[in-house]
C-alpha cells in the first residue's frame, strides 16, 4: 500500500463497469486499500473491448488499477457471510447495483450498518432508489438520452441526433461519488457513525451540466460558440468566446476588413465573417505561427488535434499523461494517469489491475485470519472463484 493521504482507509468495492470502479481507483491511488469484490461472471468492462483485448481489457485496466481482487459468489449464503466479514474489516462499502439488488444479495445498507456501524456506504444507481424510475436500466447511452444531452447536442450543433461518443454520465457520477464518499468519511471520523450516501446518475449529470442555466431561460437559449475555424493547411483552430466577440477581437488585431455590407442579416453576416477569419488563418505560414499570432493578442485558442495526438504528443509527454502498467499478459500497456498532484504525497497506482479472484487467499488470510484449509473448503464449494 502506498503512503498516500488515504493509506489508513480500506474500501470494499462491489461495483462494476465504470461509475463505481473509477471512484474506487481514485481512492486506491490516494493510498487506500481497495478490495474489488468481483462476481463469478466477471466485470462487464472485461468484455467492452475489441475481441483480441477481452478479459484483461484496456477499459477494465483503466478503471481498476491499484486494487486487490476477491471473487465471491454472493448468491450462496456462505458468500454473503464472507462479504459481511469483509465489511467488518473495512471503512467504505461501494456498490452500483440496481436499487434493491444489494439488499437481496445480503449486502444492503441495513446489513452493512449492522455489521459495521462506522462504515460508510456509497450507492450509485441510475434514477434514485426512491423514484418511480428506480428499476430502469442505467448505462451511459440511456442516461445521455434521459438527461437530454443527446437532444441538446443535436439542437446546438445542427447535426443528426447521435449518441455521445463517450461515457460522460458514468464519469460525472463517479467524481460526485468520490466527493460524497470523502465527505461521509470525514463525518464518520467526527461522529463515529457511518452513513449511506446515494448518488443517482440522473441527478449527477443534470446537476453538473453547465448549459442548464441557458436552457432554463424563458424561452430557452443556446449559448453561442463559433465552430472551429478551418485554417486550410494549418488545420482547424478553436477560439473561445461568442462569435461576435471573436470577430471583433480578431478583426481589430489583424486588420481584417469586414466582408458584410451594412444591413446584412445576422446569419449571413456571421457566415461571411467566419469565412474571412478562415482565409486569414489559412494565409499564415504554419500552424505554430497561427497559434502564436493569436496568443500574442491574448486570444484564447488551440489547434484541433486528434485524441491520440493529445495523448502522445510532446505536451502529453511533458505532463506524463501516460503510464506504462503491467498488462497481466507478460507485457505493458499505456494508461492515462489521474490528474492529482500532491506536494507531499505520490498519487500513483501501487498495483496493476487485478485478475478475477487473484487475491482471494491473501485478503482472507490477512483480514479474516482464515486458515488455508478453510479457504480451500470455500474454493471447493465454489464460494470463492479464480480465473
Please give the number of β-strands: 11
| Largest sheet composition | 6 strands, parallel
Under CATH, the topology of the largest domain can be stated as Rossmann fold
Which class do the helix and strand fractions yield?
A: alpha/beta
Low-pLDDT segments: none
CATH class category name of the largest domain = Alpha Beta
* Count of alpha/pi helices: 17
CATH superfamily caption of the largest domain: Crotonobetainyl-coa:carnitine coa-transferase, domain 1
Rg: 25 Å
Fraction in beta strands: 5-15%
Principal-axes geometry comes out as elongated
Order of strands, main sheet, comes to 3-2-1-4-5-6
Average pLDDT score: 95
SSE order, as H and E? EHEHEHEHHEHHHEHHEEHHHEHHEEHH
What is the CATH-assigned architecture of the largest domain?
3-Layer(aba) Sandwich
Helix content range of the residues, please? 40-55%
Number of domains: 2
Euclidean distance between termini CA atoms: 24 Å
Can you describe this structure?
With 387 residues, this protein is of the alpha/beta class. The protein folds into two domains: 10-211 and 324-380, Rossmann fold (3-Layer(aba) Sandwich); 229-303, no CATH class. The protein is built from 17 helices and eleven strands. The strands form three sheets. Strands 3-2-1-4-5-6 form a six-stranded parallel beta sheet, with helices on both faces. Strands 7-8-9 form a three-stranded antiparallel beta sheet, covered by helices on one side. Helix 2 (58-64) links the parallel strand 2 and strand 3 (68-71). The protein is elongated, with a radius of gyration of 25 Å.
